[in-house]
Design goal:
Elements: E1 2-6, H1 13-24, E2 28-30, H2 31-41, H3 44-54, H4 61-72, E3 81-84, H5 90-101, E4 109-114, H6 117-125, E5 127-129, E6 136-138, H7 165-188, E7 192-196, H8 201-211
Parallel strand pairs: 1-3, 1-4, 2-3, 4-7
Antiparallel strand pairs: 5-6
Helix pairs in contact: 1-8, 2-3, 4-5, 6-7
The structure holds adenosine monophosphate.
């Protein structure tokens, strides 16, 4: 199964992708996660991507397409994958289509998580992350048991630099301007499956499953 999970920052893409990746036995490929790891490692990709990410702008398409080509060429992606946070522009969607068609492959479905913009701002500015084990909390609806401390490993929680309000608003603007055309790209191909992302993660996941093509 080759899937794309589509949705604005804060729409719950990461949570749904993890659930689906585990159940379907396919790797969850998040471009945001790969880029953050590259920045942490200080590798050439990370050094180039950092300034774009810190300001909430998109990283240039050529860098992203090189990165995704490398990732999808790895053996664990041979039987399928779930893309999270990619493609974000029409050029990326076209690049992905060319990459896959060269291998005789195509995307099976694009799940789009639909959430109201005000709700997205509320969710994103309340998000907290454990830098040690990667656990994600939300002060609004999934707070840690002890304030500021990770439930899983006890490390102090942090706010991602790009989750602060001004940056969040910019990310949503960028999303609206640049990413919405990608929805049209997949809609015209009959692959776009909208799912109401405003409900609990479990309810959203049930709709996600219902939207997958039957094998
Ligand atoms: P995310 O965790 O998906 O919200 O991504 C965090 C940041 O990484 C974004 O704000 C962008 O700067 C960058 N990024 C992630 N995925 C992409 C992509 N497909 N194209 C361009 N930039 C990306």
């Amino acid at each position: 199964m080759r899937l794309i999970l589509f949705g604005a920052p804060g729409s719950g893409k990461g949570t749904q992708a993890k659930l689906a990746g585990q159940e379907l036995g396919i790797p969850h490929v998040s471009t945001g996660d790969i880029l953050r790891q590259s920045v942490k490692d200080g590798n050439p990709l990370g050094l180039k991507a950092r300034a774009f990410m810190d300001s909430g702008a998109l990283v240039p398409d050529d860098l992203i397409l090189d990165m995704i080509g490398g990732r999808l060429g790895r053996p664990d992606a041979a039987a399928g994958f779930l893309l999270d946070g990619f493609p974000r522009t029409v050029a990326q969607a076209e690049g992905l289509e060319a990459l896959l068609s060269g291998l005789g492959l195509e995307i099976d479905a694009v799940i789009s998580l639909e959430v109201d913009p005000e709700e997205l701002i509320r969710r994103l500015t309340a998000r907290r992350l454990c830098p040690k084990c990667g656990a994600i909390f939300n002060l609004a609806f999934q707070p840690p048991k002890t304030e500021g401390v990770c439930d899983a490993c006890g490390a102090p929680l942090e706010q991602r630099a790009d989750d602060q309000r001004a940056t969040v608003e910019n990310r949503l603007r960028v999303y609206q301007q640049q990413t919405s055309p990608v929805m049209d790209f997949y809609r015209t191909r009959g692959l776009l499956k909208p799912v109401d992302g405003s409900r609990s993660p479990e309810e959203v996941y049930r709709s996600f499953q219902a939207a997958l093509p039957k094998s």
